[in-house]
């Protein structure tokens, strides 16, 4: 039986290669034709990551920089999205199958140069202004977030992007970037299935009765963050690089305190994320 089956498969392939198969699946490409009647089972999406940004400049300047400047992104969510027949409109600047230049030097979970494998969404938002008390972050409008959520849901579904691969620019380039900042509503979006979020009971389990702001050995946190996906040293010392990475993690998962200090709650959140997404 096996021999017959193999023989019939070989015959089908031979017919196909000889050009006797169904001609309805032939695409004309000028000087030659492509037969798309057979498709391999062995394939997946090239896009593995979704990266969120803010532009730090206004609508006009954002569009200028992302279309004529040094960078680009697949999508741009305006400060006040236009609504056509009841549906908000996002600008698509680069087709998803092409590479946009939004991530720069970047690393996540052992992979680098995320421009190769990601879709980038830029959101018009001023970012922060430096004032006497420190940085003042500017909120996103509910209409912008609704548009970004609808867009992200669609991108995630089409490319089968896992929750832990929906990231901030500051997650993948923490020494250079702070966007989309601590006011980006990651928890709210995770409630709609967009991106990762730890389960509070699991965070409490790892907190194990400690005060949230109790100091912890930085080596534990360095190891946990590296295991989750961040690129950072694991030498047990508190240096500028570690503080910036911890702050980037806090901007995403504990926006109430983004000081970059290694504390018990930050460690517990990291452990809860590892339990949920890395086991
Ligand atoms: Zn960015």
UniProtKB/TrEMBL annotation:
GO cellular component: outer membrane
EC number: 3.5.1.28
Record Gene3D superfamilies: Peptidoglycan recognition protein-like, PGBD-like superfamily/PGBD
Domain of life assignment: Bacteria
Reaction equation(s) it catalyzes: Hydrolyzes the link between N-acetylmuramoyl residues and L-amino acid residues in certain cell-wall glycopeptides
MF-aspect GO terms: N-acetylmuramoyl-L-alanine amidase activity
Alphabetical list of SUPFAM superfamilies matching this protein: N-acetylmuramoyl-L-alanine amidase-like, PGBD-like
Keyword S-adenosyl-L-methionine: no
Pfam families: Amidase_2 (PF01510), PG_binding_1 (PF01471)
Keyword Cell wall biogenesis/degradation: yes
Protein name per its UniProtKB record: N-acetylmuramoyl-L-alanine amidase
């Amino acid at each position: 039986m096996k021999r017959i089956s193999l023989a019939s498969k070989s015959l089908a392939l031979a017919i196909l290669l000889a050009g006797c198969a169904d001609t309805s699946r032939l695409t004309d490409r000028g000087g030659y034709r492509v037969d798309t009647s057979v498709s391999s089972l062995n394939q997946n999406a090239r896009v593995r990551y979704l990266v969120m940004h803010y532009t730090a400049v206004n609508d006009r300047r954002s569009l200028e920089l992302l279309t004529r400047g040094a960078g680009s992104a697949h999508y741009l969510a305006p400060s006040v999205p236009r609504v056509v027949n009841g549906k908000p409109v996002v600008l698509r600047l680069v087709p998803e199958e092409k590479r946009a230049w939004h991530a720069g030097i970047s690393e996540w979970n052992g992979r680098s140069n995320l421009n190769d494998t990601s879709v980038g969404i830029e959101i018009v938002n001023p970012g922060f202004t430096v004032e006497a008390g420190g940085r003042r972050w500017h909120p996103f409008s509910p209409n912008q977030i609704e548009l970004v959520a609808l867009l992200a849901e669609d991108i995630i579904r089409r490319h089968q992007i896992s929750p832990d691969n929906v990231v901030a620019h500051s997650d993948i380039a923490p020494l250079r970037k702070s966007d989309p900042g601590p006011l980006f509503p990651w928890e709210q979006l995770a409630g709609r299935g967009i991106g990762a979020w730890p389960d509070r009971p699991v965070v409490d389990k790892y907190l194990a009765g400690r005060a949230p702001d109790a100091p912890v050995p930085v080596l534990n946190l360095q190891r946990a963050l590296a295991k989750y996906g961040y690129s950072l040293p694991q030498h047990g010392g508190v240096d500028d690089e570690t503080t910036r990475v911890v702050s980037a993690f806090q901007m995403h998962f504990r926006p109430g305190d983004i000081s970059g200090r290694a504390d018990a709650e930050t460690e517990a959140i990291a452990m809860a994320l590892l339990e949920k997404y890395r086991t």
